[in-house]
Amino acid sequence: QITDITVFHFKFSRLMIRKFIFAFVLTFTGLCCHAEGYNILGVSYTNTFYHFNDDYSWDINGIALKGGGISYLHGFMPNPSIPGAFEIGLNINFGQGTSSESEETKIGSSIVNAKYKLTDINVQIPVNVAYKISFDSKTSLTPYIGVDFKLHMLSKMKSLGYLYTPDSTDSLELLPTKFEEDWSNLFDKNEMGGSQYTYNRFQLGWHIGLRLQYDMVAFGVQYGTDFIPAYNELIQGVGTPKVKTSTTNISLAFCF
C-alpha cells in the first residue's frame, strides 16, 4: 500500500540525488576548465529505444526514436605519462519515431487500431573515463565508459491510426476512418491526465563506447541505458508502469 510517507521519502531522495549530481558536475567542470587537454566536436546518428514494461497499459513493446545530434567533448590527462583521461562534454540530440506495433482496442461495436508517435529533444552532459591506445603518431583507439546527465527540453507524443465502425447497411463489415490526435506534452499533468502519468524530465544513465581516431578525424560507436527511467510511477491497483530507454550512437568528429 502506498502511503504519504512513502511518497515523501521517494520525492526527497530524488531531490537529494539531483542536488548531489549538480554539485558533482560543477566541480568536475571546474577541474576540466583549468587543465590542458584535447577537444572533440562531432555530429552523430542516434537510435533511442523506449521500452514499456508489462505494467504499462499500452499493448506495445516500445518505440524506437531515430535522429541525430551535435556534441562537444573536452578531455584532459591528469598524468601525461599514463594514457588515461577524464572527459566531460555537452550533447544536443533530437529523435522521432513511431511504434512498429499497433494497439487494438474494442469500444462497443467499433475497433480502434492505433500507433504512437514520439518526439524528443534533450541535452546531455557525459562524464567519461577513457584509455587511449596509440598505434602510431596519428592512429589511436580509445575505449571509454561513463555516466550521462540528461535533461529533456521537449518530449511529446500522439496516437494515430484507424477507427473501424460498422457499416450502416451491413453490420458485419467495418469501415476504416483514419485519425490523428494532437500532440501531448509528456511533462504536463493536464495533458497527460494527472501528475502520476507525467514523464521524468531528468534522467541519469551510463554508457560504454569506442573511438577510432586517425589524425584529426574520429569515428565512434557508443551504447548506453538509464539508471533513472523515462517513466516510473507507483500506481495503486495497477502496479509500477515503467519506461526505460537505451541508446545506440554512431558519431563522426573533428579532434583538435
Write the layout of secondary structure elements.
Elements: H1 4-33, E1 37-52, E2 62-76, E3 84-98, E4 103-107, E5 110-131, E6 133-134, E7 139-166, E8 174-180, E9 184-185, H2 189-192, E10 202-214, E11 217-226, E12 231-232, E13 242-255
Antiparallel strand pairs: 1-2, 1-13, 2-3, 3-5, 4-5, 5-7, 6-7, 7-8, 7-9, 7-10, 10-11, 11-13, 12-13
Please explain how this structure is put together.
With 256 residues, the protein is mainly beta. It has helices at 4-33, 189-192, and strands at 37-52, 62-76, 84-98, 103-107, 110-131, 133-134, 139-166, 174-180, 184-185, 202-214, 217-226, 231-232, 242-255. It is built from two helices and 13 strands, in the order H-E-E-E-E-E-E-E-E-E-H-E-E-E-E. It has an eight-stranded antiparallel barrel. A hairpin with a 7-residue loop joins strand 2 and strand 3. The chain is elongated and about 80 Å long.
